[in-house]
Design goal:
single chain; 5-stranded mixed sheet; Nucleotidyltransferase, domain 5; alpha/beta; 2 domains
C-alpha cells in the first residue's frame, strides 16, 4: 500500500492506494506542514485500521512538501511535483489522457496532461483563497460554507454591470445578461448576499475564461475540473454559463478534490 499526501496551504488530503485502486480518503487542517502531514497520516491509519507494516511508501506533494526533510514514521517517504501529481491524478479520475485540467484550490492551476508529458500551462492567483480573503474584508465572514449560503440568496444584477445595462441588444455571441464589468454596478442597496454572489461569480468567471483559452489552444472542447473548488455548486453554474457561450464543457470526476493526493500516491507505483 502507498499513502499519497497533498500538503496544501489550507487543507491537507491523504489517500491510500493499492494496485492502482484508491481505498481510503481523508482530509485535515493544521497550522504547519509537518503537523499536517503527520496528522493526515495518523488519521488515515487510525480511522481505517491500516497496519503500519502494510505501508511500503509515503508520497508527499503540495506547497508544504519541502518542509518534510526525512522519512515519516520510519517509512520510505518520497516527494513528487504538485503539477505532475495533478496531471497523474486528473488522468486517473477522468479515465483518459491528453486532457486539460483546471485545478481550483486557494489559487488555480491549468495543467496539460498526457502520458508522455505533463506541463503547467499557467494559472491565476484567483481561487478559493480570493473568495475567503475578500469576504473577510467586505462581509466580515471567514466561514466558506456560510459565504456560499449567503451567495445562494444574492442577486448579481445589483453588483455586476451587465450588458443589458449598457446596450439594447445582444453583443456578438454574448447575451444581454452577460457580465460587462465585475462589481461595475455595485448599487448602494446591494446587500451582503449580493456581494457574496458577486465574489463567487467573479472568481469562477476568471477561472472559466482561463480554461476556455487553454482548451482552445489545444484544440479540445473539454476541461476536467479538480481541487476543492470542483465541488462549488454556484461556481458550477457560472461555468455552465461559460459553456453555453464558448462551447467548452467542464467535467467533474468523482473524488476530484483528492486529485493531487491521488496523483502523488500513483506516482509511487510507477
Amino acid at each position: 500500500m502507498i499513502i499519497g499526501i497533498d500538503i496544501g496551504s489550507t487543507t491537507t488530503k491523504a489517500v491510500s492506494i493499492e494496485n492502482g485502486r484508491v481505498l481510503h480518503k481523508i482530509k485535515t487542517k493544521a497550522s504547519d506542514a509537518v503537523t499536517s502531514a503527520t496528522g493526515a497520516f495518523g488519521k488515515m491509519i487510525v480511522e481505517n485500521s491500516i497496519r503500519m507494516s502494510g505501508i511500503r511508501k509515503i508520497m508527499i506533494t503540495g506547497v508544504g512538501a519541502t518542509k518534510i526533510k526525512d522519512d515519516l514514521f520510519g517509512i520510505s517517504t518520497g516527494k513528487t511535483g504538485e503539477f505532475e501529481s495533478i496531471g497523474i491524478g486528473g488522468m486517473f479520475l477522468a479515465g483518459r489522457d491528453n486532457i486539460i485540467i483546471a485545478n481550483i484550490g486557494t489559487g488555480t492551476a491549468i495543467i496539460d496532461a498526457g502520458k508522455e508529458r505533463i506541463s503547467h500551462m499557467g494559472g491565476s492567483g484567483v481561487g478559493g483563497g480570493t473568495i475567503l480573503g475578500l469576504a473577510k474584508k467586505l462581509l466580515s465572514m471567514s466561514d466558506f460554507n456560510g459565504i456560499m449560503a449567503l451567495a445562494a440568496r444574492g442577486k448579481l444584477n445589483r453588483i455586476d454591470l451587465l450588458l443589458e445595462d449598457i446596450v439594447e441588444t445582444d453583443l456578438s455571441f454574448l447575451n444581454r445578461e452577460s457580465t460587462a464589468s465585475n462589481f461595475g454596478k455595485m448599487l448602494d442597496s446591494a446587500g451582503k448576499e449580493d456581494i457574496a454572489l458577486g465574489l463567487v461569480n467573479m472568481v469562477y468567471q476568471v477561472i472559466g475564461m482561463l480554461s476556455v483559452f487553454a482548451a482552445k489552444s489545444k484544440n479540445t472542447d473539454k476541461v476536467v475540473v479538480t481541487g476543492n473548488g470542483s465541488n462549488n455548486p454556484i461556481g458550477k453554474k457560472v461555468l455552465e454559463t461559460i459553456t453555453g457561450l464558448y462551447q467548452v464543457h467542464f467535467e467533474y470526476p468523482p473524488d476530484a478534490e483528492y486529485t493531487t493526493a491521488i496523483g502523488a500516491g500513483l506516482s509511487g507505483e510507477m
